[in-house]
Design a protein that fits this description.
This protein is 72% helix and 0% strand. The chain is mostly helical. It has 2 domains: 40 residues, no CATH class; 236 residues, MetI-like (MetI-like fold, Orthogonal Bundle), CATH 1.10.3720.10. Helix 1 crosses helix 13, helix 3 packs parallel to helix 7 and helix 12 packs antiparallel against helix 13. It is flat, with a radius of gyration of 33 Å. It comes from Micromonospora fiedleri.
Length: 326
């Protein structure tokens, strides 16, 4: 007796169907996923701005807004004309003031001495990176002055550079007559700048050492194999490799020279002799703190800000060109 086919029938898979309940459910889920992914992308794009916003707000409130107030205040009067608009009278007075002109001339000397102030920590960092004997001790010794207060540094060098101090005693022992280091108008400014460089180059040294950590050591090894001398290695390998670091040190050193020498000037020379060691920041303090002329001090501060901005941009431009040419 013939038996019929009892095998179960095979139904087609439902994975490819778009009709029915399963198809409707998957169709309803797809727009939800797209909406969620779009929100995630927007959050990722906004995240950097949200993270930077507090820092930007602090800069605007504590830096830019006071700066704009100071610039606006520089166009008002002092004394009997306090609060009244005087145009550019304060700037005219600055240009006719011999002390402010001396301060601007000293700024020019600072710009000329800037490469020396940058080269000293750069060379010392190079020797430490090349592991000269005793490089660990030198690293600590070089950085030590950076932790001292400018007032302490000034007091120490006042004793060392006194007319009857140790420096002149050493010079006298070799037959050199004593030098009035801080009383001679021709050399006092250079002495103060030298003390400032000694006291602050430790921070630049640390920045250079951090830059050396990013330098490709294979280039140095290749230069040594080719028989390059140390000056050639510095010129053709180290300087191009540290171009960004050098730019940063140039700008920060210039800003430090223009805005961080007040303590040394106050302790060592008080602007003397004969006003030869005046800098804009010391002139600003004199006008604000002693002469009670805040509007004129604001005008001098604005001039100092413009000088730093122009000099900083020129330095970056020149260093970029030098880096491309090398």
């Amino acid at each position: 007796m013939p038996i019929g086919n009892t095998q179960p029938s095979v139904r087609p898979a439902l994975s490819g169907r778009t009709d029915g309940p399963a198809g409707d459910t998957s169709a309803r889920r797809r727009p939800a996923r797209r909406a969620g992914s779009g929100g995630g992308l927007r959050a990722e794009r906004l995240a950097p701005y949200i993270l930077v916003a507090p820092a930007v707000l602090i800069i605007v409130l504590l830096r830019l807004y006071p700066l704009l107030l100071g610039v606006n205040f520089s166009f008002t009067g002092d004394g009997a004309r306090n609060g009244t608009a005087v145009g550019i009278d304060n700037y005219r007075e600055l240009l006719t003031d011999p002390l402010f002109r001396t301060a601007l001339g000293n700024v020019g000397w600072l710009v000329l001495l800037l490469p020396v102030a940058v080269a000293i920590p750069g060379l010392l960092a190079t020797f430490i990176y090349l592991r000269v004997p005793g490089h660990r001790v030198y690293r600590s010794v070089y950085f030590f002055p950076a932790v001292l207060s400018p007032v302490i540094v000034g007091a120490i060098f006042n004793l060392l550079l006194a007319f009857d101090g140790p420096f002149n005693a050493v010079l006298g022992a070799v037959g050199v007559p004593p030098i009035d280091w801080l009383g001679n108008p021709d050399i006092a400014m250079f002495v103060v700048v030298g003390v400032h460089v000694w006291a602050t180059f430790g921070m630049s040294l640390v920045v250079f050492l951090a830059g050396f950590a990013t330098l490709d050591s294979a280039l140095l090894d290749a230069a040594r194999v080719d028989g390059a001398s140390l000056p050639q290695v510095i010129r053709h390998v180290i300087i191009p490799g540290l171009s960004r670091t050098i730019q940063f040190v140039f700008v920060t050193t210039m800003i430090g020279m223009l805005t961080s020498m007040f303590g040394l000037l106050y302790v060592m020379t008080s602007g003397g002799p004969e006003g030869s060691t005046y800098l804009p920041e010391y002139y600003i303090w004199i006008q604000q703190g002693q002469m009670n002329r805040p509007a004129l001090a604001s005008a001098a501060s604005t001039v100092l800000f413009v000088i730093m901005l122009v000099v900083g941009l020129l330095q970056i431009q020149l260093l970029r060109r030098a880096g491309k040419e090398s």
